[in-house]
Write a structure and sequence with these properties.
Blueprint lengths: L36 E4 L23 E4 L2 H7 L8 H5 L3 H7 L2 H8 L16 H7 L3 H10 L13 H8 L2 H8 L15 H7 L3 H9 L14 H8 L2 H19 L6
Antiparallel strand pairs: 1-2
GO molecular function: DNA binding; histone deacetylase binding
Main location: cytoplasm
Subcellular location: Cytoplasm
């Protein structure tokens, strides 16, 4: 993955340029029209006026992106066959994991013992790709096959951070069951909680807080998860964190007995 641009002012009025689309195996390739993307970016402009609760993934973000091929879009639309067999045969193990092509993925894994944790040029393993695109059945299969959920990519990207960024709460829970570091940080200080907040993923924020995610961690920009929620106008996420802080405070006081 290409590193993101240096962080700019969070509330900058200048619209960021469109993100450059990238392929798992070909960093220089151009994305076809209609491809789904997930952008790894912690620093974005403020929410649109009049719609502060809008999902952050709908806005134009700075940074690099992870790209599905159009076959995944077709499968999500309900097609029984996600790609022609000849097309599937040409996909790498990382692309198959990102698209949830379990049958072909199993065939690839049978070819070698070390393929399950094989990194691509950016250090992304099949598990990281599957986590980034919400392929929970693929994530579960890879973990059962022996995939290591603790592996970090070249810029310290993790399966947990990318799943949190996408709001894939089930995958977040599955990874946490394998004792991954809930407060793992990437090259710009982003943690799973910070990315979940940035994406306005309420359920994911709740799940991370329930498992002990640190609310005080700052990204390199100086923003804590609460700072980010307030600056972006994500009131539901802010309320979740405020309620969590209140519970922590109440539990620290202990039971109140009669005078």
């Amino acid at each position: 993955m290409e590193p993101t641009r240096p962080a700019e002012d969070l509330l900058s009025s200048q619209p960021p340029p469109d993100p450059e689309l990238r392929d798992p195996e070909d960093p220089g390739s151009e994305a076809p029209d209609g491809s789904d993307t997930v952008v790894l970016s912690l620093f974005a402009c403020a929410a649109e006026p009049g719609n502060p609760e809008a999902d952050a993934s709908a806005s134009s973000l700075q940074g690099s992106s992870l790209k599905h091929s159009t076959t995944l879009t077709n499968r999500q639309r309900g097609n029984e066959v996600s790609a022609l067999p000849a097309t599937l045969d040409s996909l790498s193990i990382h692309q198959l994991a990102a698209q949830g092509e379990l049958s072909q993925l199993k065939e690839h894994l049978r070819k070698g013992d070390n393929l399950v944790n094989k990194p691509d040029d950016h250090g992304f393993t099949p598990l990281i790709w599957a986590s980034a695109f919400g392929e929970i059945q693929t994530v579960r299969f890879l973990l059962d096959w022996g995939a290591d959920p603790h592996i970090l990519a070249k810029e310290r990207e993790s399966a947990l951070s990318l799943a949190s960024m996408g709001g894939y709460t089930d995958i977040v829970g599955l990874l946490l069951e394998h004792d991954v570091d809930i407060n793992i940080y990437d090259w710009n200080g982003g943690t799973p909680l910070l990315y979940a907040v940035r994406g306005n993923h309420v359920k994911c924020v709740e799940a991370l807080l329930a498992r002990g995610a640190d609310l005080t961690t700052e990204a390199d920009s100086g923003y804590t998860p609460m700072d980010l929620a307030v600056a972006l106008g994500y009131r539901k996420v802010q309320q979740v964190m405020e309620n969590h802080i209140l519970k922590l405070f109440q539990s620290s006081l202990g039971p109140v007995g009669p005078e």
